[in-house]
Design brief:
255 residues; binds 6-O-phosphono-beta-D-glucopyranose; 45% helix; alpha/beta
Length: 255
């Protein structure tokens, strides 16, 4: 805490918390665009917030990505989380295995001693496949569980970086561009006003479910993500935000 005072991070935390009406903001020193160590610190702070806000027997939905993966790495056996259930926030989004929500939910569960449920849905679902999948009793059942999540933990990405990482087709890239997509979180794309402009066709949490979720925790870092983070905050349903100094300084400059 003393270190944070000296760096002025406590002040930045308060500014961001007040501007967006958040429950809590945590800023770790450094910039994860340039430092693996800072990314680890983000993971550590994310893990601490997850523990802080989790209640007994919660269902916790987690999104994929390298940041939530780092949170999983920083979790350890916890009696507090034993009765909890980790589930993926959404089905396949086109990520590689290590970054998929299923992988991260199961890692979090294994590390903490909590339970987990997985959702197996192929990437790039067609409308027909989607319609028949949601009729499947097994899928219906797990979707019901996911929608009961009291908490969501997710990363935030830059729209185009995410679209490229997931190898979406040219047409979609053009659509995202023309719609002014700036940020991405849990498979939804947001413009600079925080409006959803596009979504990846898959199943799991819908935007209206996120709006109802009691505790939404966003974790993201790197100065390159500052605009994306601000966009998701304007969406207005985040409760706890964990970012790094690199992102925070640039966000506050533009507030
Ligand atoms: C995705 C999540 O898998 O990872 C998104 O669904 C998030 O919520 C993205 O925007 C961020 O990835 P990273 O690797 O930058 O943490």
């Amino acid at each position: 805490p003393i270190m944070k005072e000296l760096l002025g991070l406590t002040d930045l935390e308060e500014q961001i918390q007040n501007r967006y009406g958040l429950k809590q903001v945590v800023i770790v020193p450094g910039d994860s665009d340039f430092s693996e160590y800072t990314k680890k610190e983000l993971g550590r702070a994310g893990a601490a917030m997850l523990l802080k806000y989790a209640a007994k027997e919660d269902i916790i939905a987690v999104a994929g990505g390298s940041t939530t993966s780092e949170i999983a790495n920083q979790l350890s056996a916890s009696t507090h989380l034993k009765g909890n259930l980790f589930v993926p926030a959404r089905g396949g989004l086109g990520e590689m295995l290590e970054l998929q929500a299923n992988t991260i939910a199961s890692n979090m569960a294994k590390r903490t001693g909590a339970g987990y449920r997985l959702l197996h849905v192929p990437d790039h679902l067609s409308e027909d496949a989607y319609q028949s999948l949601i009729q499947e009793p097994n899928i219906k059942e797990i979707i019901d569980v996911i929608r009961k999540s009291r908490m969501v933990v997710h990363g935030i990405g830059e729209a185009m970086v995410m679209a490229e990482r997931r190898k979406v087709d040219e047409t979609t890239i053009r659509i995202l561009d023309s719609e002014g997509a700036l940020a991405e979180a849990f498979g939804y794309y947001f413009n600079d006003k925080g409006e959803v402009v596009h979504q990846i066709p898959t199943i799991g949490l819908r935007i209206e479910d996120i709006e109802q979720t009691e505790v939404v925790i966003g974790v993201a870092g790197g100065s390159s993500k500052s605009e994306a983070i601000s966009a998701v905050l304007k969406f207005g349903h985040e409760d706890v935000l964990i970012i790094d100094e690199g992102a925070a300084v640039k966000m506050v400059e533009k507030m």
